[in-house]
Structure formats: C-alpha cells, structure tokens
Design a protein that fits this description.
single chain, about 450 residues, alpha+beta, PmbA/TldD fold, 2 domains, 8-stranded antiparallel sheet, 5-stranded mixed beta barrel, 10 helices, globular
C-alpha cells in the first residue's frame, strides 16, 4: 500500500520532467495502552502517513534545495506541493549539492517478525507482563503509564537510482511510580524508547524504578564540593556526551570552523573510545542506510583518547571533498542534517561496584531534572533528580536537588573509571563513567 503511494507521487514528479528529486515516504503505526494506576484505562491504535519531497536547482556551482512536507494524496495537492518545492529550490541557492548515488547497502533486519505479524497481540501480551511486574512491587503506587509498540515503514527514492525500503519495530515505556511514607511523597517517572523486545527487561527495570522512588523519600540535599568525583549513569552520559561530542565530530562543525577536534589530536582520557555505529546490533538508529540513502558505517571517532575521524552527511562531504560516513539524519522538519547514528563507548575493566569501592567521597547521578549542555562550549549545569552520596566506597544516602556543573570537554579529559557494564539508552550504548573535578553545589 505504501509502495503504491510512492509510485503515485513519483509519477506526478516525472510527468513534469523534473530531473533532480528525492521522495521520502513514511508510515508510522503505534499500538498503545494507557494505564491509570495498575489497570488499562484506554487503548488506541495510531497511524500517521507523510511524505517529504526535495528538489534541486543547479546554477553554476550553487545548488538550491526545495523541501516540502505533505500527507495528502489528492493529485492536485501533490502538484501544488511539487510547484512549491521547485519554487523554493530556485530561490534557495547555497553550496553545491547532489543526491547520493546508488551504493552497496548493508543487509540488516531491524524489525522483529512476530511484532510485524501481529503488533496488537504483541502489545497486549507485553502489557499484561508489564502490569504483572508493576503489581508485584512493594510499597509503590503506580499512578499513570503508557506502553506502545511501534512499526515504521519507510521508502526512499531519488533520481540517482536509490530505491530503498525499510521496516522497523520498537517500543516505548512510560510509568509514574509514587512512594509515600510519614506524609512524605516521592515519584519516579521514567520514559524511554527501546529497540528490541529482549531489551525490555520489565522485571529488572520496574524493580529499579521502585527502588529509586523509595530512596528519593530519604534523599538529602548533597554536600557542596568544588572538586567532586561524580559517576554518571548511561542515561546521563547519553544526554551529556552525544550533543557535544557528536556536534564537534561533525563535518559541519569543521566546515564552520567551530569544531574543537583535530585529527590525531588528544581530546579525551586514554581510557575512552567512542564509536558512531549505524550497524550496531540493538541500536535504536541501526539501519543499512541513513536519511539520504548513504550506507551506514562503523566510524571510530575517538580511539584511546585520540580523535580519528569526522562524521559527514552528503552536503558537508561534498563541500570538504570527502565521502559521506552515513551521518545524514532526518530532522523533525524532514530536512537532512549532520548527526550521529548510534554512539557507543567501549567498556572499561572494572565493575560498577568496583568503581564505587574506589571512591572515598563522591556522588552518583542516576538522573538530572534537565540536562542540556551547550553544544558549542560544552558547559552544563543541572539539578540532581535521583542520585547517591558515596562515602568510603559505599552508597551512604540518596541525594536530590543541588546542582552539578562542569564542562563536557574537560570531563572526558578527566575520566577516572569506566565500567564493564553497559546499557542502551535511546541511540547510545554507554557504560557508567566516573569523572573528577566537577562542581557540586547544595
């Protein structure tokens, strides 16, 4: 059915003798259960279809790109969208650009067959499993939650013989757990996208959520420390490292002369190796190809502290006379920009417990209320939502509130320990990492 929609759009484009075009067609389906306390309150199925058209207009060594989004398949509306896209291309000249050509694409399967065959039954079975685990928790009151099964189907076609199709399945969990004691109230409200069914781990995941909610009841404001050792969870690391390291590793930042990274330069501690891997098994953004149709790759960005390679989408690869590394990512607008596929940090040689045992005084942060480091400077400051104070190699008490501030560049340059354990969080596979010289204020 989606293929027929693609054909309808392309036939309309070809009828106008347009030479350079790209069609990105996507249909997203979601099967959702909404929970009130520990019961299903509502269920719904959601389907969204849209297409993104890009047209090129060439003038000497400049190229105009016209982008238009649509969801109507009425022939007259398609024609209007094509005209608007062409007009934008003619009035939007920038650097030279052309769509990628057909290439050898890694043959990856990023969907689960049972989910594709019966997504509703999969959702119903997993919903019951999730609720069973929630009901088994002690001293916890669930208040609200969601569970979704997602199925995405995508076609990408352009005038340079790229003709790609992809099916993807994944999951979403959101659940608010409340703990109450002696008039005190605490809540832990996680939400996360998870790629594969075997990563759901409802039993371990819900027990951890319940423990964090209960411990927050006893949490204290952390002691101030201008030279603190802090362990970050994989979730926190994802939010800190990806936007900063990802941006400065990009060909876009290099072209704009704002990248702090130089090839063969030491940019982090020797114990850090970071890989951008569009082929990572279990990675949320794993696929054979990127948002433009260039092959995904495994790109070693930082190896034992040394910067190795930049990440390029098609535009900045052309500008810098390089090859795309498969890092053209679709934004919410449908445009393509430099981005990361899946970030992976290689594990260390110590367990998480061994790392804690090495710290005389420090802090562990499971989650911040809000963490948005400056992509340009790397500076950040964020309030602790869930964490622990470490004393003499052990968790002494839970902590919340207070603020941790620092700089991502300095942080990765002063990495003390990296755990053997790693966890997926969205499009990252990260360990637990301890850093020195951060500032904690109460």
């Amino acid at each position: 059915m989606l293929y027929e929609k693609l054909e309808l759009i392309e036939n309309s484009i070809k009828s106008k003798n347009i030479k350079e075009y790209e069609i990105f067609v996507v249909e997203r389906k979601a099967y959702e259960s909404i929970f009130l306390k520990d019961k299903i309150d509502n269920e719904r199925d959601i389907s969204k279809f849209e297409y993104i058209l890009r047209f090129l207009s060439q003038k000497e060594n400049k190229t105009g790109i016209g982008l238009i989004k649509g969801n109507s398949l009425d022939p007259k509306q398609i024609e209007r969208n094509i005209k608007i896209g062409q007009l934008l291309a003619k009035n939007n000249l920038s650097s030279n650009y052309y769509f990628p050509y057909k290439a050898v694409i890694p043959n990856l399967i990023v969907f689960e067959e049972k989910v594709i065959q019966n997504p509703l039954a999969t959702k119903n079975d997993l919903t019951e499993e999730l609720l069973s685990e929630i009901r088994s928790l002690q001293n916890i009151q669930p208040t609200f939650g969601r569970f979704r099964v997602h199925v995405d189907e995508i076609f990408l076609r352009n005038n340079n013989a790229i003709n790609l199709h992809n099916l993807k399945t994944y999951f979403f969990i959101e659940f608010s757990l409340k703990a109450q004691q002696n008039g005190n109230l605490a809540e832990y409200w996680p939400f996360i996208f998870i790629k594969n069914k075997d990563q759901l781990n409802f039993s371990e995941r819900t027990k951890k959520w319940a423990r964090l909610a209960q411990d927050t009841l006893k949490a204290q404001i952390p002691k101030s420390n201008k030279n603190a050792t802090v362990i970050f969870s994989p979730e926190v690391l994802s939010k800190a490292i990806v936007p900063v390291v990802g941006a400065h590793a990009s060909g876009k930042a290099f072209h704009q002369k704002i990248s702090r990274f130089k090839i063969d330069q030491k940019v982090s501690s020797e114990n850090i190796t970071i890989i951008d891997d569009g082929l990572l098994e279990g990675g949320f953004n794993t696929n054979g190809w990127d948002g433009e149709g260039s092959p995904h790759q495994t790109n070693e960005i930082i190896k034992q502290g040394i910067f190795q390679k930049r990440l390029y989408d098609q535009k900045y690869a052309i500008i810098e006379k390089e090859q795309s590394t498969g890092n053209g990512m679709r934004t919410l607008t449908g445009a393509v920009d430099s981005g990361v596929s899946n970030f992976e940090i290689l594990p260390g040689d110590m367990t998480f417990d061994e790392i804690i045992s090495e710290i005389d005084e420090g802090y562990y942060v499971e989650q911040f209320s809000w963490l948005r480091p400056s992509e340009l400077s790397g500076n950040f400051g964020a309030e602790i939502r869930n964490g622990y104070y470490i004393k003499n190699g052990k968790f002494e008490n839970p902590i919340k509130l207070g603020n941790i501030s620092g700089n991502v560049f300095k942080m990765i340059g002063n990495c003390l320990y990296i755990s053997k354990e790693r966890e997926f969080f969205d499009n990252t596979l990260f360990p637990y990492m301890a850093f020195g010289n951060l500032t904690v204020t109460s």
